[in-house]
Amino acid sequence: MSTAAIVILIVAIVVIAILAWMLFRKERTKKLRSQFGPEYDRTIKQYGTAAKAERDLELRQKRMQKVNIRSLTPAERERFAERWQVLQSRFVDDPAGTIHDADLLVTEIMSARGYPTIGFEGRADDLSVDHPLVVTHYRKAHEIAGKHEKGAATTEELRQAVVCYRELFEELLERHLATRR
């Protein structure tokens, strides 16, 4: 083989390797964007680059693969549903207490299902792997609760927070799965 043929072969191998790497990254991005939905874009804004964001999302997936998430028993599901009804009915008389208790109840149901429950950001990141659409609601409810702690949230915002917590609560309760079983 001549020197020119060797150089052409090496260049061809390098070009093929670069194209394969680009295709791999494109497919990885497509898969992560599809799985995480709005959380994908939020994470890019958080980290500033797609590469860093995708690394974080993949780490979340790997971390959650090690966690044993379980469904609630029918009795647990009913007990949590009853507690939610009581909590929600108190909103008119005690909006602030309802927001606080909604956050605690959501954290308790996460714990019962096996999710790690240390720190809000950790909980939200872990939820984003299995529940990427409702984690946005969780983040919004938490933001409103923080605004309320500073005395800046309106009653309408507190109502929105309860609605957001309810979206997450319903998803974690898995009523849609229970009715199919």
Care to describe what's here?
- This protein has helices at residues 3-36, 38-47, 50-65, 74-89, 95-113, 120-130, 135-149, 155-173, 175-180.
- It is mainly alpha-helical and 181 residues long.
- The protein folds into two domains: 3-65; 74-180, no CATH class.
- Helix 1 (3-36) packs across helix 2 and helix 5 packs parallel to helix 8.
- The model has no long low-confidence stretch (mean pLDDT 91).
Fold topology:
Layout (H helix, E strand, L loop, with lengths): L2 H34 L1 H10 L2 H16 L8 H16 L5 H19 L6 H11 L4 H15 L5 H19 L1 H6 L1
Helix pairs in contact: 1-2, 1-3, 2-3, 3-6, 4-5, 4-8, 5-7, 5-8, 6-7, 7-8
Topology order in helix (H) and strand (E) letters: HHHHHHHHH
Radius of gyration, Cα only, in angstroms?
Answer: 22 Å
Report the total helices: 9
Mean pLDDT figure: 91
Strand content: under 5%
Main pleated sheet: none
Strand-pairing-aware structural class: mainly alpha
Unreliable segments (pLDDT under 50, ≥5 consecutive)?
none
N→C terminal distance? 67 Å
- Write down the overall geometry: elongated
The total count of strands amounts to 0
Integer tally of domains? 2
Helical residue percent? over 70%
